[in-house]
Specification:
By secondary structure, this protein is of the alpha+beta class. It contains eleven helices and 49 strands. Strand 23 and strand 24 form a beta hairpin. Helix 3 crosses helix 10 and helix 9 packs antiparallel against helix 10.
Amino acid sequence: MLAVTTKKSVIVVAEKILVNKSLSLSKIDSDKAIFGFYCQKIIAVVTNIVFFIGLIPYSVKSASAQTIIGCDVTSPNILNIANNAVISYADEANDKINRIVSNKITAVINSTTEAEQFLKLVNQGIEDAQGNSLIGIGAIAEGLIAQFKEQGLNAEDANLASLTAISALATLDIETSSQEVVNVVKQVLLENFSNQGINNLITQMPDTDLLTALAGLQESNLKALGLTDEEIEIANQAKIVPENNGSFIAQIITQIQSIAEKISRKEAQTQLLNFQKQYEQDLTNIRQDKQNLVTSGSTVKFKFRLDNQSQKVIKVVLPNAQSITTKGLTGSGQVTKVVYRLADSDAQVASKDIDITTTEETVSIPADKSLELDISIKVGEIAAKEISAITLNIQPGCGNLASQSLNILPPLTIKPNLIDPLGSITGCAGEILPEYLGFSVALYELDQNDPTGSSPSDLTSLTATELPDDPNNNKPKGIKPNIENSNPFYLTNTDQGRYSFLLDEERGQLDFGATYILVVQPPDNSIYDERRVKLVLGDRQGNIVEYTATSLDGRAIRASDGQTTITGEIVLVEDAERVGLDLAVLDLATNVCDAQELEINKTGDRATAQPGDIVLYRLAIRNLASAPIDNLSITDTLPVGFELQTDSVKAEIANQLIPIATANNGRLINFTTDITLDTNAVINVVYAAQLNANALRGSGENSAIVNAQRTDNNNSVQDGPSIHRLKIKPGIIENTGIIIGRVFVDKNFDGEQQPIEPGIPEAVIFLEDGNRVITDAEGMFSVVNVLPGIHTGILDLTSVPEYRLAPNLRFSERNSKSRVVKLEPGGMVRMNFGVTPTAAGKKTNLRQRKTSKPDNKPNAPKFNF
C-alpha cells in the first residue's frame, strides 16, 4: 500500500508490499512468461525502495541512478520478501540539496545469497584509453571524505580535508613510517583549518582510522573494488596501526597482500593488487606534478562481467548507451560506447566485441558462462577545487548490484619539503645506534678501470659551503649537519646518524649517468660492517633528479623493505642567497648491520671412521646479532655413505631440551625449530650418522649452513658452510680388488681354457700402470690390492716366442693383445689370454719350459712393481 501526499513535509508509507509472498514455479510452470514478469517486478520494487532509502549519500551533489539489466531465468526460483518502510521527504528552503531522511527502515530480502543468485555481476575495474588502471589514489578520496564526515566535518570541509591529506601524504618520502605519516598529515590539516572546532575534531580522530583511510582500506573503497560483503568482512580485520619502524607504504603492501591471500576469489585478489600498484604510481605522479591522467574530454572504460551461476540458460536485456546515461550514470560524463562479448566463466576465452551502443539487445548466457560488458564514458567538466566523481551502477534483474566510481582529483600543488632533507645511518633494524663517534660517510667516484663497476677510486670533490652564510664571500649556504659539505663527513651522536651531501649542478655532478659509490665506514674494531652503495643518476623532472641505489655487499639498503636495489630522488635546493648556484641534496638512508649476525660451528666425535661405525655430530648456532632471531633452519649435507639415525636428534639451549623438527631427503637433512634465539644465545643440535659400505667412495666431508630471520626488521641472516672432515678407513670392507687370469694354449679357439689345454709358464703381462706380472708353472697369475675402476692388461709375446695369440671365434674383442676389465670395489675380475703355437713352437717340448717342484704345487705368482 503506497500513500503519497504532496505537502512541504511528505509522508510516504509503504507497508507489506510483499509479505512472505512466495512464487513457486511448480504452480506456474505452464506459463514461464508470467514467472519472469513477477520475478522482475518484485526485484524492481525492492530495488527502488533500497535505492531511495540507502543509496543517496547526503553530500553527493548529483542524483544517483542505476541501470536495470532485465533477465529471464528458465529455472525454478522462490522469492520470500518482506518490507516495511516509513520515509519522510524534506524539502526545506535552507537545504542546499534535497535529502531523504529515513526514521524507520525494515527490509528483509530472502531471495538468494550472492553465491546462489543466478547472475553474479563482477567489477572488472576502470581503465583509460591506453588500458591503464584508474583505480588508485583517487579511490581513497571517497573513504577519506566519509571518515572526516564521520568525525563531524561537513561535506565541504570533509572534501577539503581529504585533498589536504592526500597532498600531505604525497610530499613524504616513500620510506616514511606510518607514525610520521599520521603526525604530518594531522599537522598539515591543523595548519589549513583555522576553526578551532574542526581542529579539535581532527586531533581527536583515531590514528588507526586515518591511516586505514589513507591506505584505501575503508569499506567504501573495498566495495568500489568489487569485493563481496564476506570479503569486506575479511578485509576489515586489517588495520594500519601507527609504527615507528618500517614504512607506511610497506605496511599497506603487507596488509593488502595478506588480505589477498585470505580471499579465494581471483577477481578480488587481482583488484586489490592492481589497486596497490596504481596507488603507489599515483603518489609518484602527484609528487612529479603530473597526477591528472584523466582530464575533461578523456575517455574512460568501466568494465563489468556477468557470470551465469545457474545450470540453465539466462536471457538478459543489455541496455544501450542512452539508457545507461539516463538511468545508471552519475556525475559529469556521457556514455559513448557499449560493447559486450561472451566468454568462459574464467574469462580466458572470449568472443569478438559486439557493439550495442545504439540498440538494446537480448543475449542468452549459457550455463557456467560469462558475459563481459565494457562501457566507455567521455568525461565532462571536472571541478577545479573539488573531487569529481563518475559513478556507474548496474543492477541485473536476478543478480547483485555492482557499482564502480572514478574519483578524479583536482590539480594538486606539491612543494617538496626541504626542512630536513637528510640521509641517515641507522642500525640493522632502523634503530638509532647508541654510539656514532668514529663513523664516517663518504662519496667516491667510480673506478673506471674496474670492469665490474663496483670499486671506488677518488673522493668526489664537493663544493664547499658554510652556515651561517656570509653573503659577501661568494661561498654557498650549507645545510645541517654537514654545513661545510665535507667529504668524508664524520657522524656525531648529536646528529643521531644524519648526514648530507650537496651536489653541484654547475660541475656536472647531476648529469644523467653520473655514478658514485657511497661508503659508510664504521670505527676500527667495531661490531658493524662497512656499507657500500652504488648510486647511478637517471632522468630529471623539474627540480628532481632520480637515482638508482644498488647495494654492493648484498645486504638490504634499508631495514624497512629488504631491497638491495631501490630508486630515490635528489632534490635541487633553490635559494637566491646561493648567488645562482644550484645544489642538490643527496638524502639516501641506509643501515649498518653487525659484521657477523649468526655463527655456526660443526664438530664430530672422531677424526677417522670405517663402515659400520656411528659418528656423533654437534652443531652450535650462536646469535651474534643485536636482536633476537627466529625461523631458524639448519641444512646439513652428509657425506656419501652416511645415514642419519633419526631417533638420535636432540637440541638444547642452556642445558634445556627444546623441540626440533627433522626432514631427511637422502644426504640432505633439514632441522627447524620454532624457538626464538636471544642475542648471544646458543642452540646446540646433536645427531648420529652411521657409515655404510658406500662411505669408502666419498670424501667424508660434511657441511652445514644456517638461515634465520631477525625479529626487529625481518631481515634474513645466515652463516656457513661449516665443514667437518672425517678420514674414512676400509676396515673389514676393502675397497681394492683382485685381478686373476691365465695364459694357456687355446686349441679350440673359444677363449676359455679346457682341461686338455695346458697353461704357459713364465709369460709376462703388463698392466696400464706399468706393473709387470709373470705367470706360474700352470700359466696362472693374480694381482691383489688393485684400485677399483677400468684396467688394461697386455700379453708380452716376446716372453713366449713359441706362441702367438690364438684367434677367438666367439669374441672379436679378444683377438687383441690387450684385455680391458672393470673392477668393482672389493671385487675380482678375470683377464685370460689364449695363445697357439707357431710353426717353430710346435717342435718345442713344453715340459722343458716348466719348473717342476717336489711337492708338485704351482709356483707362487711373481710381481714386479
